[in-house]
């Protein structure tokens, strides 16, 4: 029987357009300020530019072939891994009748725009692991290759009907994997990629002996606040409609983040004697990351547990780079990789279809909510596949680009500051004024 003709739902469409806007805000300016404040003053412009560049490169590629490679249903691609990039090349041939969110009455182009923002922020997240030391041209090349070879396939595998979806072999053997808004597709993906690229680039000059403290903590707090606000579009918007499931995702996103922030600060206080503003901001992000895959799949108590575990474990995990000697500059591994794994795996314990919880067809309740170990096993397998897939491919891509163009800036440019070396600018004018005087508050 032919599919029903598309019928516009203006309420759902307005919500999805709003969600797309605030998710884009998470990258520029949210992540740009968050990461920009965490680096030293000589690198802040470069960090912000890399986030803007991620939006430019990924946005262009997404419209050209990324959406088609991720979400088209044409089987002429390797359909378990990726779809046909030419089916809707340049969005030609895409109609509302084959909209990704057509069942909710959301036009195809709105769905394209919403998903574009997810691809953008995933690439941008990687910049935190490689701060202060990558060539701008190499970052542009890496962004284009990585989003094509890693992000689009993994997003297709999880959300587009591929290997890790409810239609894939894992669902047939175990149960339907749950990743409501991007625990594997965004956070595990970016975290594993950040680790691989940081290993290839090597340590920053002077790390870990020299202190490399955040130069502007108010920027960090501002960025975290923008991320928190935008994340409601990220998680609640992933329902694709303005309904009760979106409401459950909104509430879970809110409460998990509250608990994670408090848990991170308590961990700091117990360990170091002080609860810091950087810790509060980092706890916010850790909670947001961890609740993302589970946003609609747990009840309020489950969300609180996820926030608590993520806040404590991520606060402890950021110290792993010192123990193992990898220079993850802004803790992408400790927050996004660890937080993404925490949220993904805890679904296997906490998933429920009670109290407003939503489980996709074929998924089971968590171990603590009357289910068996099947959903837990499913979540562990999917998380492990995502880590290996992203890390291995990123490492290969990084080595290839390093061999062709080089990755790292010259040592003198790194020491002097990549802002001036790469952009010919500095964020702050510290040159003493000369040749004039100040009289009655007016520069002469």
Automatic annotation (TrEMBL):
It is found in: Cell membrane; Membrane. Belongs to the ammonia transporter channel (TC 1.A.11.2) family. Residues 14-428 form the Ammonium transporter AmtB-like domain. Coiled coil: none annotated. SUPFAM superfamilies: Ammonium transporter (SSF111352). It holds the Pfam family Ammonium_transp. It comes from Luteimicrobium album. It is a multi-pass membrane protein. The chain crosses the membrane at residues 14-36, 48-67, 106-127, 139-160, 180-201, 217-237, 249-266, 278-295, 301-320, 332-351, 376-401. The keyword Membrane applies. Keywords: Ammonia transport, Membrane, Transmembrane, Transmembrane helix, Transport. The lineage of its organism: Bacteria, Bacillati, Actinomycetota, Actinomycetes, Micrococcales. InterPro entries: Ammonium/urea_transptr, Ammonium_transpt, Ammonium_transpt_CS, NH4_transpt_AmtB-like_dom, RhesusRHD. This is Ammonium transporter. The keyword Signal does not apply.
